[in-house]
Write a structure and sequence with these properties.
Length: 293
């Protein structure tokens, strides 16, 4: 069931910072950090699950299973990327129903042509705005709980310009989107223009090395944004750390001098081993003792 905390936070104008999660380790680490929301990144989830580009290759079945697994494994409300809804209007309805049933609190849908491409990469093309409006209306009707949020994204800025992107953002808000996501503005001035034009809660996509400038949370809140997602920060840090330690292992043949790591004990605790050990103490060992009599 969708968590009501997200809608309440938007109503109270509380700015939300949402780290990207992409597998169960990242989900559990982020879940223990006290964030108000987690963001299931399409790029990172497709990369970690399938090892391929986020370019429309992953299916609804791939994504709802993976996103649902993460949502069920955390206590923090989660918004999840669902690309274009994986097809037409009937697909959108099915996707919303599936994501909500999986325990996700919000779904991100975008106006790209199929097959979609990852935001901040070239070659993205969008469908007519009127087609996306219908998708949003279908999505809003398909949800069971009013606390399940519809995040409507437009990729129009890169190919059609800022004015068209803002026009679409306004249309998407009027169609029933709870949050408007204008992808890839290319300057702080553009972001300020978006904040002035659109009154619906706005989402900022903070991608390290992407097309949009990285602004502090306080600045984003001041210019009209309600939530900032950081989809890549986790998997970029993970890849850098693994490249460093694997490189050391290959060069030196040991892990002795790698330095401080997360720690095996902490990882066993994160994954829930103490509960397993407690279970064994209460059940497995008494059964073994009984069998030995």
């Amino acid at each position: 069931m969708a968590h009501p905390a997200l809608r309440q936070a938007f109503a109270q104008r509380k700015f939300i910072v949402a780290p990207g999660i992409f597998d169960m380790i990242s989900a559990k680490v982020a879940d223990g950090m006290g964030f108000d929301c987690l963001y299931g990144t399409g790029f990172g989830t497709v990369a970690s699950h399938l090892g391929v580009p986020d370019a429309g290759i992953a299916t609804y079945t791939d994504m709802v299973a993976r996103m649902g697994q993460m949502a069920r494994g955390v206590r923090t409300p989660m918004i999840a990327d669902a690309d274009t809804g994986y097809g037409g209007l009937l697909n959108v309805r099915h996707t919303v129903m599936g994501y909500e049933a999986a325990g996700i609190s919000g779904i991100q849908l975008e106006d790209q042509e199929i097959p979609k491409k990852c935001g901040h990469t070239p070659g993205r093309r969008v469908i007519p705005a009127e087609e996306m409006v219908l998708k949003i209306k279908v999505a809003a009707e398909a949800r069971v709980s009013p606390d399940f949020l519809i995040v409507a994204r437009t990729d129009a800025r890169t190919t059609l310009g800022l004015e068209e992107a803002i026009r679409r953002g306004l249309m998407f808000g009027d169609a029933g989107a709870d949050v408007v996501f204008i992808e890839s503005p290319e300057s702080e001035a553009e972001m300020r223009a978006i904040g002035k034009a659109i009154s619906k809660p706005l989402l900022a996509n903070m991608v390290e090395g992407g097309r949009t400038p990285l602004l502090p949370a306080a600045t984003l809140a001041a210019i009209g944004y309600a939530i900032a997602i950081y989809p890549a920060v986790g998997f970029l840090a993970m890849a850098a750390a693994m490249e460093r330690v694997y490189g050391h292992l290959k060069q030196h043949g040991d892990s002795i001098a790698i330095g401080e790591s997360y720690g095996f004990k902490r990882m066993t605790e994160l994954m829930g081993f103490p509960e397993v050990w407690d279970f064994d103490q209460r059940w497995a060992q008494p059964e073994a003792a009984k069998a030995a009599e």
